[in-house]
Specification:
CATH topology of the largest domain: Pectate Lyase C-like
Strand order of the largest sheet: 1-2-4-6-8-9
CATH architecture of the largest domain: 3 Solenoid
Shape: elongated
CATH class of the largest domain: Mainly Beta
Number of strands: 9
Mean pLDDT: 96
CATH superfamily of the largest domain: E3 ubiquitin-protein ligase SopA
Strand content: 5-15%
Radius of gyration: 19 Å
Helix content: under 10%
Distance between the termini: 60 Å
Structural class: little secondary structure
Length: 231
């Protein structure tokens, strides 16, 4: 399918026509309103979305290679089964998104609000979360190997059965978080807040918990061999 032009995209939106499956790659959108539109199965690679309204958009099964979203509202969107590779989300409102079963690899989230979002069964390997709020987010059964989540604000979130070997969580706020059956080999939790966190059946082999707050944590059947713990 031929790549659409900016003018053609404007016409589609004004006529309320479907954009599903279209190739929008390489286009730059500024101050555009995509509210509740469907971009399902679209190619959004190399796109730039600047100060756009994209709440309620359907991104399911879309492709986003090196896409960039800046100062854009993406609240309540469905991003399930999408391929989001080497992309950037900066200063975006992303509450209540559902990105289950997506590949979100080497992608950077900076100053984003991700509260109550779902990233279950995702591959988030080597992705970066800088200064993000993610209260009650669901990362269950996801791959977060070597992910950088330092200083992430994610209280009451779920990391159950996640693979987080080598993940960077220094200074993260994770009070009340659940890590049941999670693989956390070599994970870095220095100075993290882990009060009331649940590590039942988790593997913390070689993890670094130095100076972390660990009040009332649950360590039932938790593997703690070779951890580093400085107080």
């Amino acid at each position: 399918m031929a790549n659409l032009s900016i003018e053609e995209v404007h016409a589609y939106i004004e006529e309320d026509a479907s954009l599903e499956g279209q190739d929008l790659s390489g286009l730059t959108f500024t101050d555009m309103n995509f509210l509740k539109k469907s971009l399902k199965k679209c190619n959004l690679s190399l796109c730039v979305f600047e100060s756009c309204e994209m709440s309620g958009v359907n991104f399911e099964e879309s492709r986003m290679f090196r896409a960039c979203f800046r100062n854009t509202m993406i609240v309540g969107c469905s991003m399930q089964k999408s391929g989001i590779i080497q992309s950037q989300f900066m200063q975006c409102g992303m509450e209540n998104i559902n990105a289950a079963e997506s590949k979100i690899i080497l992608t950077r989230f900076a100053d984003c609000i991700l509260n109550h979002s779902i990233m279950v069964n995702c591959d988030l390997s080597q992705s970066i979360f800088e200064r993000c709020e993610a209260e009650e987010i669901y990362f269950s059964k996801s791959i977060l190997i070597l992910a950088d989540m330092a200083a992430l604000q994610a209280p009451k979130s779920s990391f159950n059965e996640a693979r987080m070997d080598g993940a960077e969580l220094s200074g993260a706020k994770l009070d009340g978080a659940k890590f049941q059956r999670a693989q956390l080999i070599g994970a870095q939790f220095q100075n993290a807040v882990l009060d009331n966190a649940d590590f039942t059946d988790a593997n913390l082999l070689g993890a670094n918990l130095s100076f972390a707050k660990l009040n009332n944590i649950v360590l039932k059947n938790t593997l703690l061999d070779n951890i580093t713990r400085k107080k």
